[in-house]
Design brief:
The protein is of the alpha+beta class and 438 residues long. It has six helices and 16 strands. The strands form four sheets. Strands 2-11-7-4-5 form a five-stranded mixed sheet. The chain has a five-stranded mixed sheet with strand order 12-13-15-14-16, with helices on both faces. A three-stranded antiparallel sheet has the order 1-3-6, with no helix packed on it.
Amino acid sequence: MQRPIVAGFLALLFCLAPLSGCFGEDGPPPISESDVTITPAVLTGGVFQGITIAAESDLAAFIPYLILNPENGFVQNSTVIDIKAGKSVQLTVLAPPRTDTAVVLIGEFGRENWPIRDLEESWRTWYSRNGFESNGNQGVVRVSSNTSLDAVLPSNDNGGDVLSLRLSIERMNAAAYSESDGGRHSTGIVNGRTTYNYLSMLSDETSDPTDLADGAVGYLDRWAGQGNAAYEDAAQYLIQTLDSFGLEVITQRFVYDSTETGAQNPEAYNVCGYRWGEIDADKWMVFGAHFDIAPPVNAALLDPHIFGRTYGTRVGAYDNTAGTSMVLTVAEAMASYSTRNTMVFCLWSGEEGGKRGSDYWTDEWVKEDNPNVEVTNYVNLDMAGVNWPGGGGAPCGNGHGGGEGNCDPDPAIDPDGYPKDEEVWPMRVYIGPSLDHD
């Protein structure tokens, strides 16, 4: 009886031998680059485009860029998708315009937590320092949404190491311009050429005898106060332009007592274009810039609110036609997009007299007339494009910034510089060449 038992035991042992290597394994082999294919391999910077992610094994992908959700038409920031072996997923992604690198993170199927870059660095820098192997990354966690595309939220858990795939980005050169003439900054959803065109048109000093407001092709002499005809003419142009984008234009006209004479003087218009939100219309993201300019001479008849200023011009290209042009550029680009919350694009009046237009809009239009509104974000564009009066906002190194070490030679704000009154100190946003920003 013992011989059959031994024979049976040996037979069972031989049958189990092929499976013996499976015991003690942690699971399937780690995902490698050969398990996933992303096309196209080179993205076009600054525009939404379709990409396809195909999987050879079960995996998850984290795409940390703006994505157009086809189900609701909204743009969302990042998503995580699961892909089964042999399947593929198509997404519409906005590739960043000012870098040559995009990254897509790959992990195990169903992965919840993912690492992200630091706030002070780009994904390009994160990839170059092997951030995908670091335990010190910040993290996000995927959360379900009401659509097929999950969202992400901040998390203390980054999920550990990931496979990071690098994609190249190229920003196309506009056919009408050479690269030295700004051709690569003339393409994309928002681009410098559009801003330049608005700035050039508004600042055009070419004589036009038929224009009784300012005698020029452009919109000059935009000095708020006293019912200035040139200012009124410019306000009408802004109203018509914002309306042509499909925005609802709402204006406010207001008056202030002159600090010199005590008389009431019209401060012309605040002009705002509204793209109403489709989910929560009472949450407003506002882009703003003042479009009045400082008078070139001290003249109470031109500006009765300020006495002693003599720094202005007829044109005001820098302060603040530049900011006005940027608001128009962003409004034109974003007006056609569906949004959960409301987007507002405002051109303020009376800033040179002390933020009067924006104060009026905030105190009267929002607080009094629309008390349910929450202004969630405000981006102010004043004297945009120049990092003045300093403060270290400009990038340093590699020929940027000037001064010793190619950095800002005087990062501290000059206490004797303009303006001395905190009430009229505008917030400045540095918008210009960057060493690496996506």
